Amino acid sequence: MKDIPVDRTVDVAIIGAGTAGLAAMSQVRRATENFVLINGGELGTTCARVGCMPSKAIIQVAEDFHRRHTFDRVGIGGEDKLTLDIPEAMEHTRDLRDIFVDRVLAGTTDNLGDQFIDGYARFVEPDVLEVAGHRIRAARIVIATGSHPVVPESWQVFADRVLTTDNFFEQDDLPSSVAVAGLGVIGLELGQALSRMGVAVTGVDMLETIGGITDPVVNETALTLIGKEFPLWLGHPVKGRDDGDKLLITSGNQSVHIDKILACLGRRPNLDRLGLERIGIDTDARGMPQHDPHTMQIPGMPIFIAGDVNAERQILHEAADEGRIAGSNAVAAEVAGYRRRTPLAITFTDPNIAHVGLPFSELDAEQVVIGEIRFGPVGRALLMGRNKGVLRVYAHRQHGRLLGASMIAPKGEHLAHLLAWSIQQHQNVFDLLKMPFYHPAIEEGLQAALRDLKKQVVDQSEDVLELARLDG
Amino acid sequence: MKDIPVDRTVDVAIIGAGTAGLAAMSQVRRATENFVLINGGELGTTCARVGCMPSKAIIQVAEDFHRRHTFDRVGIGGEDKLTLDIPEAMEHTRDLRDIFVDRVLAGTTDNLGDQFIDGYARFVEPDVLEVAGHRIRAARIVIATGSHPVVPESWQVFADRVLTTDNFFEQDDLPSSVAVAGLGVIGLELGQALSRMGVAVTGVDMLETIGGITDPVVNETALTLIGKEFPLWLGHPVKGRDDGDKLLITSGNQSVHIDKILACLGRRPNLDRLGLERIGIDTDARGMPQHDPHTMQIPGMPIFIAGDVNAERQILHEAADEGRIAGSNAVAAEVAGYRRRTPLAITFTDPNIAHVGLPFSELDAEQVVIGEIRFGPVGRALLMGRNKGVLRVYAHRQHGRLLGASMIAPKGEHLAHLLAWSIQQHQNVFDLLKMPFYHPAIEEGLQAALRDLKKQVVDQSEDVLELARLDG
Predict the structure, then answer these.
(1) Quick one: average pLDDT of B398-418?
(2) Which of B46, B47, B319, B373 could form a disulfide with B448 if both were Cys (CB 3.0 to 4.6 A apart)?
(3) ipTM tops the 0.90 cut
(4) Nearest to A303 by CA among A279, A319, A285
(5) Are B414 and A78 in contact (CB < 8 Å)?
């Protein structure tokens, strides 16, 4: 391939037109129009096509349908007459997805002309890419090729029974039984949604924890709450084999016949086609190059790596940040480092699972106190008929500054935002208790957790009223 | 009555066993057990008995029932088979209310013994009260007698057709048509709930604004959204007269026959029985004594006035704060002032109406810029089928520090908390945009409003990435 001459020279080449790549482009364009955006495969971001958006659409349907179980208690009759037309629900999901995909496309690739190249890029030199039979020299390159769902090699023998998020939303109908392999964010979200839509779901995972929870108290509550909706088989690898007209799934000494298996085993970075090994980039065992999470640069290279492809923070707002940082640095005279936002991860199960700031697994037990609240008696939770869950807030034992939180909580997504913002603003528990908590709002659950936390902090504030004293 | 001797001397007398009175008691008890809690009439707080709690219970039922209108769009069938059994819904509301009332009672009056006095107190001297035939001398007195719904005198002629929150929740069934007089918080909440439960509701108010909104843009959107559910007759006084077996309600040149009228014209402080005029306290035209909102003290008197009775902030968390301040000062060697929380008021309509910080009516137009977002295109709002509403955020024109916000917004209660906390923490728009906004969460609507705001601030931050640059 050495015989292909470089036939185009640009300031920046961006590989991948997903969330990170488009965010990078938005920054690059502030400095230059001499760039290319290269994309292999289907257009539209992971988020819009197969991720956040269609999953939230189907979760909403499942939650609305599931809500009927509360109707009898409040005087609403006829809930047993409600039916779910799954093909219609899937079509609704795709309709919404198409709106979001069209939005992404309208803003970007539609108007790029020859700044857009359809094809898979591959490194020839650290500043030369080959794509679609052309060679392009780029002063800086942004890798934003995204990720794809992991499917074990051994599943090839029953490939026609395997679903991933790549094909799940294309299903016209749903099978009557599904094993969900992998109970991280996606497995829990889709597993619960499918179960609520009437599919017989079995959840399986090698780990003893679900949803990425590291706090044992939150994990136990999550196992209880989610486990009431569908069985969770934990701690053993999952094996499958064709058996008659079903797939037989085994995990430890449990087994079940199912129609399809939904692979939610994580997302692997799309690195294989890039040929990074050919340009002298050190990669780890997973094939992942080192990079600086504050600059997104690969050390010593004119190359930046942003979004899911770096396997660091596979979450939309982080991918967008990384794209902006990479794009900005790709056109900067000097590469700059940026402070990342406080970690915030939400699983849109019901109740929501959320992690904020430092995870339990990274806490120094001697330095930390934990405030805990269960939602059973929380007024608003009770009023909503959603009073299940637990919230645990971590703070520095000495002065009460917030460090992190973990929860499975009704409306946890909102509590998680309040907590993440408070942590990023270096608030302590005494100051937070001076904030308004409206009644009856779910935020009162957080207030109760903070009160539980406050008692355990060493340097006690004198302010028993939870109000700041005016001077003089 | 001069002949009744003082037969008991206490450190503190608290008049009223509602939210403010009980909060005061919790502080008084830190210093002394020589106090009395005096309560005339029914026990249980306004919040638990006739306010926040039962209203939120019935709103939840109405919202769950109303949600069926979204079912067809997503593939859920049979929504026309759903029925609402109103007597059951009312009973459910009372069941929940009783839980909350019992909780309040269990924590307090149940175990007070002779520290509790059942009766209406009346001032004889600034430090002497008469109640149930006894005179009590108290070194300090906390007035926390609460408020009651306003009903015009002229409505006496059709008194049997008048509902207030005092009797509304006791109804076994609901009338088929109701006029809601007064479209503040309570009128809008109950009006929308009744309408969604199948009652023919007509809303009437003298004002051209609803829900206490002073921002004209938010008001207009609120009129449109709420006005789609039931008619709003604004700008004229409401008149009523019996007409056959109905009540004829007239407002301007519109009129309607209805079964009952729900008076939501505000709540009047319970001051009349106290005899304040007899002890030389200056009162304004409404009969309201002056007081310091930071100490709750009536100037020059050993008397504190807390909660709804002072007509300042008739909201639970503020009443509780006032009670704590009053109680704390009632046993303090020196009276102390406390900083009040950032104003936060939420109307639990759908979408929520909320006011935070400075209201529009108090803004200095020359000093302020306003960020605005409509929820039509906000991803999560669209996914929930709740993409109606507007959010307006006010900031200082020069440096972008947040001042206030007004909204009618899906999940506005949570956005209002984030905004209130941010205002209390003196955040500016540039710092707030560095916080995490999860995708797809309703908080992205706030992010969009902040981005709209940012552009208008004079002192622009250089940080186009919305991320803090690391030093060095």
Answers:
(1) 98
(2) B373
(3) yes
(4) A279
(5) no
